[in-house]
């Protein structure tokens, strides 16, 4: 009995101890949940009821030298709906009609989007609408409509400088031109916003919090003059069509700075309508002035002549007998473009008459190795400082300077080697600038969103030939302009001009010469104080297969550049150098 009574008395104590133990466990767990893990659990809970949204970093603008916008980003807006909430609110057909009226679209399409799945949490109502239309839709105050900004790249000047500016792809990735090459400056940095969500994972209006602000991209300022670029493109396009050319390029370079003021190509691309160009001429999506290598022809004779003056082995009055056909002792066979008897020419006359046989004889006064070194110092054989996408370097041939005899002479008058239009313009800039080659510039600066301006470092000037040799070459080219067969086509009243034409057979797919020609013209003005170089090239102008096809382009573009730059007319006449003896 006693043992039974003690057992009975101990049961409450055991129960009490058990309760206290369980309470202790619950207390420890509660402390762990509410104190120790509180932040972690709260974050997990918030994650489950939060929706993260990307805030796009606005892409920066591309502008011309004066700040005129060539590429910019505007916001378009996407309108979405939560059909189950709309259905619960009722009057869906009436709401669809109001939305359609604000959007300016048929009501049937909007109603179909809202009713295709009445229990859905998402429906696309409008893909891309402008800000004004967005405001009309927002004014309807329908709580089950949601709005998302969608950045869209646009090009206000259309095809003007489209060959240089480039474009973005459908996924907004940079594809070509400055857009691609300067993406690091232009690209913005995306941010993040978080909104609380309802049970169906739709965002609750008014709960958005910016976690990380988006950062806009920088502005790229080009050296291009938008107005001159437009004019140059128009002149080129008209003349290319008139002459039946396959394509053409024009480069305008400022002599004292190396800045490219216009780089026109035809055909060209409108970055707002890339697909249209891609379907007809994929090569026109870029800039042939940078990317298309070709044999330049006789515009190279002026470069060869400048080497001769610099090396001290010739003067503008140096004499040569130039036959129609020249067979050299080392096996080369060179001829001029038209039949003629032996001509007694000076070096100046060789340029005036564009004599292949004359320049071949005088050019032989310097070795191939020396001439190759000159060519490299002029900038041939390497990409320019611009670093344009897919830029051509040009070529001297794999065996340079150990050319075979035929190539050795051919390179003196612009065959057997390849160049780009921008390289040729740079070579003439060097001659016009007292023999000093300046780095070619297309981009002036990148201005960050905070206003910090980063100037483009392009390298140091390089003295390629002496000032005397450069000035002597310009004077000879003045005589080409005043005595050559195109003197009436290149004259600009009030200004002394210096020019040289070029005609070269094009290379076909097999590596041999075709029946097609590339014609060109290069020159500077005012010749007494050079300010600009204009270089023109037309490929396969079937209706006028001579340099005369390029002359009107050169004259009109140079005249416009002189006018736009406020250049004072020449105060003297061109020198009269002897062309024959």
Q: Structural class, from helix and strand content?
A: alpha+beta
- Strand share of the residues? 15-25%
Q: Specify the biggest β-sheet.
A: 7 strands, mixed
Distance between the termini: 154 Å
The poorly predicted ranges are none
Q: Explain this structure to me?
A:
- The mean pLDDT is 92.
- The chain has 581 residues and is of the alpha+beta class.
- Strand 9 and strand 10 (260-266) form a beta hairpin.
- The protein is built from 21 helices and 21 strands.
Keywords for this entry:
single chain, 581 residues, alpha+beta, 7-stranded mixed beta sheet, 5-stranded antiparallel beta sheet
Topology:
Layout: H1 2-36, H2 38-48, E1 50-55, E2 62-63, E3 69-81, H3 83-89, H4 92-103, H5 107-115, E4 123-129, H6 131-138, E5 145-154, H7 162-165, H8 177-181, H9 183-186, E6 191-196, E7 209-212, E8 219-222, H10 226-243, E9 247-254, E10 260-266, H11 274-280, H12 288-291, H13 299-311, E11 319-322, E12 325-327, E13 333-335, E14 343-346, H14 347-353, H15 356-363, H16 368-378, H17 405-410, H18 421-432, E15 436-437, E16 443-447, E17 453-455, E18 462-463, H19 467-483, H20 487-490, E19 498-507, E20 513-525, E21 532-539, H21 551-564
Parallel strand pairs: 2-8
Antiparallel strand pairs: 1-6, 2-3, 3-4, 3-5, 6-7, 8-16, 9-10, 9-21, 11-14, 12-13, 15-18, 16-17, 19-20, 20-21
Helix pairs in contact: 4-5, 10-21, 13-18, 13-19, 14-19
